[in-house]
């Protein structure tokens, strides 16, 4: 069912899918850079949501500002305002659904958002799953290399075309350079499941290794041959690892 949330005048397009036999846990799912909440049966977050429902976990997933069906322009998107989006959704989940427990699952940049949101709300979050978390986005911005973009990290332009129809705002990169990703994430001391492919060409798996170092209760799963999308032969392993972790 529709689960739209308003943040600073922007409507974030969300969906709530209750479990047929709910156990009181709600999982909030966060998508990655330039992606969306999942509108096809092959989408990672769509598949995760369906798996979680089978173990009694209801799910909420949404499009970040400037993505999918949400309001906003992508050029204005930053990790900081995605955290603001996520906080607004978290508050809405608490107020509207009143779950016994809230778990966070994020892929790529959504993993960074999930990790920082959990750090800010360590007393409210039960478990966290980070899938190919893109914490290297800070290092990339400092080095002047973000996916296919090359730029002067000390003189970042206002706008950078990142692909046809997508323009990245320079403020995204300026704020990325100063993000306290791991410093914030480590405030969460609950259970964390880290999943990363060892053939990820977008985000080095050293990002998950560093998360594993700073967390108190984490387990790292490196999947042989898996890429950043965690698709193909690795997809079922990802779904199983995440579902088992949330269930136990």
From TrEMBL:
GO biological process, one term: acylglycerol catabolic process
GO cellular component, one term: membrane
GO molecular function: monoacylglycerol lipase activity
InterPro entries: AB_hydrolase_fold, AB_hydrolase_sf, Hydrolase_4
Record SUPFAM superfamilies: alpha/beta-Hydrolases
Domain Serine aminopeptidase S33 positions: 27-140
Pfam families per record: Hydrolase_4
Protein name: Serine aminopeptidase S33 domain-containing protein
């Amino acid at each position: 069912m529709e689960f739209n949330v308003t943040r600073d005048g922007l409507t974030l397009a969300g969906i709530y899918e209750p479990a047929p036999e709910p156990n009181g846990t709600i999982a909030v799912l966060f998508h990655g850079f330039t992606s969306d909440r999942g509108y096809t049966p092959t989408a990672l977050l769509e598949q995760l949501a369906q798996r979680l429902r089978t173990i009694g976990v209801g799910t909420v997933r949404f499009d970040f500002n400037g993505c999918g069906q949400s309001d906003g322009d992508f050029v204005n998107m930053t990790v900081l305002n995605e955290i603001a989006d996520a906080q607004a959704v978290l508050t809405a989940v608490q107020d509207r659904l009143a779950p016994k427990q809230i778990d966070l699952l994020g892929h790529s940049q959504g993993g960074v958002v999930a990790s920082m949101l959990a750090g800010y709300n360590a007393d409210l979050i039960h478990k966290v799953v980070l899938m190919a978390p893109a914490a290297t986005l800070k290092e990339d911005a400092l080095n002047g290399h973000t996916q296919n973009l090359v730029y002067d990290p000390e003189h970042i332009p206002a706008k950078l075309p990142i692909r046809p129809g997508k323009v990245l705002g320079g403020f995204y990169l300026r704020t990325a350079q100063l993000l306290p990703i791991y410093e914030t994430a480590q405030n969460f001391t609950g259970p964390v499941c880290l999943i990363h492919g060892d053939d990820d060409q977008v985000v080095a798996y050293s990002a998950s290794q560093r998360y594993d170092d700073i967390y108190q209760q984490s387990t790292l799963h490196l999947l042989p041959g898996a890429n950043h999308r965690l698709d193909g032969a690795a997809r079922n392993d990802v779904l199983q690892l995440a579902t088992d972790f949330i269930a136990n």
